[in-house]
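Review session, final week

We close the course with one last complete record, chosen because it touches almost every idea we covered. It is Anthranilate synthase component I, a protein from Cinnamomum micranthum f. kanehirae with 521 residues. Go through it on your own first, then we will talk.
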Amino acid sequence: MVAALTVSSPPPWKTLQSKTSVSSRRNASTIMTFSAFSPSFKCLSALSTPSIVSSSSISFNEAVRFSEASKNGNLVPLYHCIFSDQLTPVLAYRCLTREGDWESPSFLFESIDQELQGRYSVVGARPTMEIVAKDNKVTIMDHEEGSRTEEESSIEEDPMEIPKRIMRGWKWSRPSQSQLTGHDLPADDAFCGGWLGYFSSGTATERYVLKKRLPFSCAPEDDRNLPDVHLGLYDDVIVFDHVEKKAYVIHWVRLDRYSTVEKAYNDGRKRLDILLSRVQDIDPPRLAAGYVKLHTCPRGSSSSKMSSMTKEGQACKRAAMQAKEHTLVGNIFHIALSQHFQRRTLADPFEVYRALRVVNPSPYMAYLQARGCVLISSSPEILTRVKKVNGEVLDHSTSWDLPAALPVGTLTGAPKVKGRHLIDQLEVAKQLPYFGGFGGMSYNGTMDVALALGTIIFPTSPRYDTMYSYKGRDMRREWVAHFRAGAGVVAEGEPNEGWRECENKVGALVRAIDLAESTFL
C-alpha cells in the first residue's frame, strides 16, 4: 500500500471553495438539458427538490457495469448525483434523523471558515455495524445480521485493531466516470463511506499499545459512563459538493453478503432508492427559524450557569501547583492540564450546533450522535490525515496505524508518557472524547481525523433526562453540556493564569449555547 501521514493538510471536507466561476471551467460536453433529467422522484414540497443529474438513458446498463466493477473488488458503490440547490446539509441530516431521535448514531460533518466554505459536507445515518469499547470490554453490533457480540479485548490489543480485523479481505472497486453515472465519486477528497466516530484521549494508545501501559484502574472517575471508543460503519452517506452545486447520494454494496452479483445489485438498487426517497420524495422537515442575535443577554449570566467539575475549583489549583513542582524537580518540563466545565440548558443539541456554526465557524465542524452521547465540535486542528501519495511505506502499515500519532504532545506534556501518567493522577474527571479525535476512515484507505478541541458533549444517559415545561406549550428536555479546555504548566509559569486561559477558551462554546437559548427557546 502507498500512503502517508501528515498533520498539516486541510480536511477532505475543507478543500476551499474558489471564488472564481465554476461554470467557466466545466467542459461543455458534460452539460445536459433539463429535459434529459429523470422524472422518477416527485417532490411534495412547494419548491422542487433536486432533480437527478444522471439520466435514465445513461444508467440503463448500470447492472452490467456493476458486474464489471465487482470483478475488481467486493465493495462497490452505487450512487446518484443530484442538484443540491434546494437541499442543504443541515436539512439533509434532519431528513435522515428525525427530531428528538438522539439515540440513533448519525453524523453531519462540515467545514466553515470566516470567508471561505469548505468544498465538501458529509451526512450519514443508520450504520450497518457499530464498535463500542469501554475499558477492555468491546461490543460489536452487526445490524445487518442482527447480532451483538461482547468480548474482552486483550490488554495487548488496541480497540482500533478490531475494525481493521473486520475489514480484512474487503477490497473496494472504484467505478470510473464512464462506468456508472458520469460523475466520479470524490472518494480521495471526502469521506464517502466507511468507519466514522470518535475515540477518547488516552484510551486508544496509552492503555493498550505503549510498553509502559497505564492500567484502567489508574484512570480518573468517569461520572458520565461514556464509551472510550465508538465507531459506526456507514454504507449510506450523502456528500455535498459546494463548488459543483451537487450532492452524491451513495450506498455501498458488500458482495460477501450475497450469493450472486445480480442479487447484490438488485438489493443495492432498492436501498439506494430508499435513501434517495428519504431526501426527495418527502415533505421536507421544518427547521426552527430564529433571528441571529450575537450580542444576546442570556437568561442569567453564563458564568453563573457554568461550573467546574472539580471540587469548589480548589482541586484545579492544587493540581496546577503539584504539576509545577514536578517541573521544578525535573520529572517533566511541560504538562497540559485541563479544566472540566458543565452547563445546564433547555436548548436541543442540534440547535446548539446550528448556533455554533454561526458563533465559531471552524475547519472541522461536527455534529455526531454516538452511543451514550451527542458530540458537537468546532475544532480548528487536524490530528491525522492519510491519503495516497507517491512514495513507499512498510508493507504492514495502513491508515489504521493511528496510535503512531498519539498521544499529542501539546495536549499531554513532555515527555509524553510521563505527562499522561501525571494527568491521570492530578485530574479529577476523565477526559473521554476531549483531546482525543473524531473523523472517518474510508473504504478506500484514506483517513481524516480531527483533534477534539472546542467540543461539547451532551450525555444521553437517563440520569440527565429531566423534563421541564416551557411556556406551557411543549415539553423540553434539560440537557447537561460538558466541555473542557486545557493550558500548559511549565516551571516558570503562573498556574492561575492557566485556569483563566481555560475559561477564555470555552467562551465560544458558552456563547453558542446562549445564542441557541435566545433564538430557539
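Two points worth writing down before the exam:
The mean pLDDT is 77.
The radius of gyration is 24 Å.
Good luck, everyone.
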